[in-house]
């Protein structure tokens, strides 16, 4: 793993803007794991990612549905937005949900995802969100596998 990289976003809009940059960089088969406590901004960041990917549908917390598929824009890949907490931390269960998408052709973003991906892939990006004072959020990127080469592109975008 290369050194983790931290950024500070004082407003939800700035967090979403970073999500947009990340979403524009995502490709089929990508796995992004969001870590951080309730209210840290995981769903807010995912809204930005969805916008950057150009997918359809309103992004809301996946808590009650376990996983939601946002259909691809043209061109682009679908977004699968997952709540790993509800899946008991076992992402291999995604295969059993009968989602209306091919996971290998989708970008997968997982709330509460840390610790749940190792069985799925060696290549994943952990995005850690921490609450600082008031509305300030610190986001730390922890790349694994091929993501180590991709993270520098994200932060210069
Ligand atoms: P989570 O999915 O991690 O539980 P949400 O994205 O649902 O978190 O909620 C985060 C809340 O914090 C939202 O109401 C959002 O508007 C607010 N917020 C305040 N400041 C920020 C910021 N800098 N970045 C992201 N969200 C923020
Ligand atoms: Mg959430």
From TrEMBL:
<keyword id="KW-0547">Nucleotide-binding</keyword>
<comment type="function">
    <text>Required for the formation of a threonylcarbamoyl group on adenosine at position 37 (t(6)A37) in tRNAs that read codons beginning with adenine. Is involved in the transfer of the threonylcarbamoyl moiety of threonylcarbamoyl-AMP (TC-AMP) to the N6 group of A37, together with TsaD and TsaB. TsaE seems to play an indirect role in the t(6)A biosynthesis pathway, possibly in regulating the core enzymatic function of TsaD.</text>
</comment>
<protein>
    <recommendedName>
        <fullName>tRNA threonylcarbamoyladenosine biosynthesis protein TsaE</fullName>
    </recommendedName>
</protein>
<keyword id="KW-0479">Metal-binding</keyword>
<keyword id="KW-0067">ATP-binding</keyword>
<dbReference type="GO" id="GO:0005524">
    <property type="term" value="F:ATP binding"/>
</dbReference>
<dbReference type="GO" id="GO:0002949">
    <property type="term" value="P:tRNA threonylcarbamoyladenosine modification"/>
</dbReference>
<dbReference type="GO" id="GO:0046872">
    <property type="term" value="F:metal ion binding"/>
</dbReference>
<keyword id="KW-0819">tRNA processing</keyword>
<keyword id="KW-0808">Transferase</keyword>
<dbReference type="GO" id="GO:0016740">
    <property type="term" value="F:transferase activity"/>
</dbReference>
<dbReference type="Pfam" id="PF02367">
    <property type="entry name" value="TsaE"/>
</dbReference>
<comment type="similarity">
    <text>Belongs to the TsaE family.</text>
</comment>
<dbReference type="GO" id="GO:0005737">
    <property type="term" value="C:cytoplasm"/>
</dbReference>
<keyword id="KW-0460">Magnesium</keyword>
<dbReference type="InterPro" id="IPR003442">
    <property type="entry name" value="T6A_TsaE"/>
</dbReference>
<dbReference type="InterPro" id="IPR027417">
    <property type="entry name" value="P-loop_NTPase"/>
</dbReference>
<keyword id="KW-0963">Cytoplasm</keyword>
